Structures are given as C-alpha cells and as structure tokens.
Amino acid sequence: MSTDTTTLPVGRYAYDQVDRTFLSQRVAQFREQVARRVAGDLSEDEFKPLRLMNGLYLQLHAYMLRVAVPYGMMGSDQMRALAHIARTYDRDYGHFTTRQNVQFNWIRLEDTPDILEHLAGVDMHAIQTSGNCIRNVTCDEFAGAAADELLDPRIHAEILRQWSTLHPEFTFLPRKFKIAISGSPHDRVAARFHDIGLVARPGPQGRPVFDVFVGGGLGRTPIIGVKLRDTLPEEDLVAYLEAIVRVYNAYGRRDNMYKARIKILVQALGVEAFREKVDAEFALMNRADYRLDPAIVDGIRARFGIPPLNAPADAEQTLAASRKADPAFDRWVRTNTHPHRHEGFICAVISVKPDGGIPGDITADQMDLVADLADSHSFGEIRVTHMQNVVLGHVRKDQLHDLWRKLAAANLATPNIGLVGDIIACPGLDYCALANARSIPIAQKLSARFANPELQERIGPLNINISGCINACGHHHAGHIGILGVDKRGQEFFQLTLGGSAGRDVAIGQIIGPALPEDETVDAIARLIDAYLVLRHDNEQFLDTYRRLGAASFKDAVYAPA
Amino acid sequence: MPLLENGQITPDRWHVAVDGEPLPEGAVIVPLERLEEGLARTGDAPLGVAIAPDVDVAVLRTALPRLELVAVTFPIFRDGRAFTQARALREHLGFKGEIRATGKPLPDQYEFLLRCGVTTVQTERAEDISVWRQAHEIITIAYQPSTLHERPQGLGLRRFLG
Question: How many domains are there within chain B?
C-alpha cells in the first residue's frame, strides 16, 4: 500500500483495492436486486428501501439518482464521470444538493446498475444518499484550507462515512439521519440543524475533541439542536455516536413518519432523559470494541493527499495588481473568495447560480470545464458546498485572475456568493412529488430581478431559501428570508419567514404574515429589501436590522398595497 | 420458508406456544407474557421466548441463563428495532443462545441480521433459499465492529466478513 502523499488524491480519502472490491460487490448486489424487481420477485414496496439505499428515488416524472459526494469532496476525474453520466443517461446536466451531493433527475431504472458501475470506476457510489439510514456526512466547504480552521474535519468525516456504510444495526432507522462536522469556530455546516452536529477542536496531546449537538433539524418541525456532550474525546467518537443512534433506533417513533426524526424523540423525552439513556447505553458498551484508536485515525489520514502549497513570494502583489486593473475581477474577488491558511493561496467559490438561472444546476460541459480548472488551478480537487455551489480550495493568488477569466467565459463567474442571488431552492413542483409549489421559478425571478452586481453588493449578505412544501428541503426556516410554497385551493401561494440563520447565531425564521400569491411574491420581497436599505444603520446586515427592529417594520413593506 | 441457519435450511426442533392452550412438551417458544409459565415447567426441556420490537431486552436479564432462544421480530422489514435488540442481547447481556429473527425480514437484510447477533431466520417470505445465501455471500467487507468480532483488515475499522 502506497503512503506517498504525492500520488494520493488531494483532500479526500484514496480508495484502495479493498474499498474497490466492496464497491463492485455492492454494484453486483444492486444489479441483482433490480433484476428481481424487473422479474416481479420484489414488489415496489419491497424494492423501494433497496433502491433508496442506492440513491434512487421515484420522482414526479422519472427516477432521480442521487450520487454521494462524501463531505462534498471530489476529484476532477470524478467530476468528469458525472459529466459523462449527465450526457449519456440524463439530459446533459446535473444538480448540486444542499447535502453536498449531485442529483440526476431523468434516469431510467434499467440504466442504474450501469451508472453505478461507471461511478464505481472512479470510486464513487450512491450508497445511503436516501433511505432511513445515516446519510452523507457533510462538512465545511473550506475544510483543510480556511484560515480560521482549528482542525481539518474531513478525516473524521471519512471515518464516520466508513463506519456508517451498510451499518448492520442502523440501516432501518425510524427515519433518515444526518450528521455534519465542522473544525472551525465559524459554523459553516449548520451543526445545530442536524440530527447530530459535531464541532471539533484540538484537545490534549494534539488529539481532537468534539462538542456533540443532537436533535436539530428543519423539515415540518424546525428545532435547534441541543448540546448533548462537551469535549468528547476522539477515541470515544464512534462509541458515543453508536450509543446515540441505538437509543434513537430503539425509541424513535415509527407510527408517523413526520414525527420520526430524532429531534422529536429528544423533545418528547426531554434532553436530560435522552442524555440519561445515551449515557446508560454508552456505559454498558464494551468500549474497547468501539474505541477509535489514534492509529486508526492516522491510518485514514495517511490516505488523504496533501497539496504541496508553494506560491511565488509576489503572489499577493500580482493579485493586488490584477484587482486594481480589472474592477469586475475585483468585485468577484470580494464576493466569491475566502481566506486561505497559506498567504499565497485563496479559496475560490464558483457560483452555480447565474442570474436568472436554476440554483445548483450545472451542464455537462461546465462540469468538464470545472474539472479542467481544478486540474490546472487546485490540485485536481473540487468541493460541492451546502449552498449548492462549487469551491476550488487551493488557488494560487497570482493565478486567480486567469481562473476567473476562464470561469467567466463559461458563465461560472457570477459575483453573488452570500448575496441575494445565492439562493437555495429545493427542486419544487417541477420535479418533486411532494411539493405544493414551484420553487425554481421564484428563485429565477428573484435572481433576475437582483442581477445587478452593484445592487447585490450594496444590499450585502442575505440568504434567501425557498422550499416548495413544508418538508423544507430548501431550508426556508434557516434563511434570512425564507419562502415556503403552500397550496391554497389549488393555487400556488408563498409564505415568508424572516430572521432565520444556520450559522453560529442560529435561529428559526418567523412567519411574517399571510401567504402571497405567486405573482406578488417577488415584488413583495423587493419592497422588503428596499425597506431594509432605508432602515439599516450604516453597513448593518439584513439579519441585524431585522433583529434590531423586529418584523413590524418589514410587514408594512411586504403587505403595502401594490 | 423453513428455518434458515448459516445460509442453509435446518430442521426446527422448537414448538411455538399457541394462544389459550397449555404449553406443549419439548422445546417451546413462549411469548413474553407467558415467560413465567414457561420457567415454571418441570423437567429440562429447552425454553425460548418471543419478544415484541418495543421490549427492552433488559427485562430478560434474570431469566436469560435459563433460556436457549430469544425470538425477535420484524412486523415489517422497515422496522429495524430487532437489530438493536439482538445486539444488546449479545453485547450487554452476554446471551450465547439462539437469536431467531421472525416476521418479515428481507433476504437483503440477512448480513445485517447475522452481524447484529441473529443466528436463525424464520421468515414469512417465500424467496428461494439461494437468494438468502447469495445475500449472505455477496458482500465480503464491512466497515464497522459487530457482535461477530470479524477479523480486522488493517485499515480504519474495516474487517473481512465470513
């Protein structure tokens, strides 16, 4: 086994022959399950959990395949494989999700074994991207690169990915189970809106410790997670998570799927009683069996490629000169980059939200271009963000201008990260069998309305989240402005919530008033934003103005007569 | 389907207690409500107990040394509580006897059942035995500890099955 870090893929776990054997066995297993379904030996009801365990949903018009991108990290070879799938089996595009995965919306059941086999060829799969199991573990999109990071959470994200893969006990849970992990004091993973949120920091002897949050989530019942455990030692990470999920598996409700998430159990028992049960389980466990030995962690860490960060001494000056010479580039650097821990490097965010576009949709050609640019500018490493964008994590500052020009030529340089145009939207009634309303057209209209980059920058940080139904896949409760599609006598209406936040200042947005008809929603939001621009103090951000003034001032603007 | 053990059909020596009738002679599986009655039998005929998915297996603690079988059940295959019950029987209560999965588990869950400590399966399903055997043999690698204490593979928590 090679441990030469220069030959390993940067930023993600390198599969070896054992992992590849496992994956090919898994593909063979699914091929056989599909054959049994086609032959009628499995009913749709019986086949459903099996296909869901392989990421295959039945949507409104077709099957949808959700491919796992573990903690959002992939390589250029993997992105090219996704482009191939988009071209060959879909309609020439794919869609990035808020769980840092990729979805294909127009898949034929019979093609899925071949698609999974193609994915396995680049060490990818769709395992546990749906179903009542532990889903893709999400992570900070700037992991291993951010200047503010305390430790790289991807190593433990990978350990949890492996641990949860075909877990014998936790594959038929009451409901889906989502884990996020952050290694930065700035929560970029919405840790407290997860079934389990882990916030890692360095502890004694250089080994990490974890604060464990449990029972957060959005959906029909938005709840902010509570801290279950402070400073959990690394060696107990797997054991403690086993204990939590066992308690959930034994006691979580199974009579009503809308009350089956762990958050409902934690609320029903109360956090103290829940903690007692977890502690009792933890105390009973043979911890030696579940101990996460530092050697195990270091063995996984050694499978991650490390980028050789060498930049010329004048990289910063070169970047400064380019910014001075090119105002459009300068604006993009302001909005679409994040500080890197190395002074000669920077993280670049590729907006997959062009003006008037569909948030998160990317064409096969754009995928190939991103793969090429990752190879030329970021060690072949690509990150999918929970905001449905893409990050190149390690770009040399003196090469950033070149990167931007190439992105701009492919309509991938929209300067809107964290601004009005950076909208999160669920697929809505255009695709989804559950939706009450179409999310995508509202997102497109808002994006087009606020396309002016100067206006967007003047408005400042503003997260708009759109969900097409109360299942809240667009995380509307966590948006500074949340938009929820509802059905009123067969008409699409939209309800606004204000003041939500998924960050460290976590909050659930509050409904401002009656739902608006579809054709009035965008105007109402425009009036709301105008009101904010009048009401704010200096450079006060929207969320702060809202928190200072409350809903009343904004309500007048939203419901002002047209 | 007949009783399944190690991917093979195996004879079943157990009788299941019938509601409202006296317990039969020989090896008998009683429901939890009739456990006292089963324990009170004279002679040394083997005794087993069947528990519902919502039972905390800790209630069996005192009786367990006298039990040779615990039957857990899947009223529907999606109800995974029996996995946790089986594992707790092995790990927390040190039960060494037969754990039987009843109800409607899928062949595709067979490996999970075995790794949680289940030894035999008596399913209401009709698949050919070969489907179960295949489900048991198709995956040879696992990524987490289990009650079977499989041979670690050397990297991470990986281990070889079978």
Answer: 1
Chain A residues touching B144 at Cβ < 8 A: 162-165, 167-168, 238
Contact B156 A250 (CB under 8 A): no
Whether the CB of A173 is below 8 Å from some CB of chain B: the reply is yes
Domain segments of chain A as ranges: 13-120, 138-301, 315-400, 424-558
| CB proximity list for A192: less than 8 A, separation 6 or greater | A213, A216, A224, A225, A506
Is the CB of A24 inside 8 Å of chain B's CB atoms?
no
Cβ of residue A331 closer than 8 Å to a chain B Cβ: no
Are A289 and B56 an interchain contact pair (Cβ–Cβ within 8 Å)?
no
Query: Side chain identity at A50, as an amino acid letter?
Result: L
How far apart CA A346 and CA A471 sit, in angstroms, is 36
Tell me: domain A13-120, CATH 3.30.565.10, correct?
no
Q: What's the whole-number mean pLDDT along residues A96-100?
A: 90
Q: What is the CATH number of the domain that holds B147?
A: 3.20.20.70
ipTM of the complex: 0.97
List the domain range (segments joined by +) for residue B25: 4-160
Q: Is A207 exposed, middle or buried (0-12, 13-18, 19+ CB in 10 A)?
A: middle
Whether B145 has its CB under 8 Å from any CB of chain A: the answer is yes
Give the pTM. 0.95
Determine the residue type at A443: A
Record the tokens describing residue A461, joined without a space.
């940080």
Identify the CATH assignment for A315-400 out of 3.40.50.1970, 4.10.410.60, 3.40.50.150, 3.90.480.20: 3.90.480.20
A8 touches chain B (CB under 8 A): no
Q: Which of A127, A163, A136, A134 is nearest to A51 (CA)?
A: A127
- CATH superfamily, domain A138-301, is Sulfite Reductase Hemoprotein, domain 1 (3.30.413.10)
Task: Locate B110 and state its tokens.
Answer: 């067979």
Q: Please tell me which residue of chain A has the smallest CA distance to B112.
A: A168
Is any Cβ of chain B less than 8 angstroms from the Cβ of A519?
no
CATH 3.30.413.10 describes domain A424-558: yes
Residues 6+ apart with CB under 8 A from A17: none
- Residue B9 near residue B129, CB atoms below 8 Å: yes
| Interchain pair B91, A168: CB under 8 A | no
Nearest to B145 among A21, A49, A290 (CB): A290
Task: Give yes or no for A48 touching B (CB within 8 A).
Answer: no
Q: Which residues of B touch A296 (CB under 8 A)?
A: 156-157
pLDDT single digits (tens) B52-110: 999 999 999 999 999 999 999 999 999 999 999 999 999 999 999 999 999 999 998 99
Matching fold, domains A13-120 and A315-400? yes
Closest approach of B29 to chain A, Cα-based (Å): 23
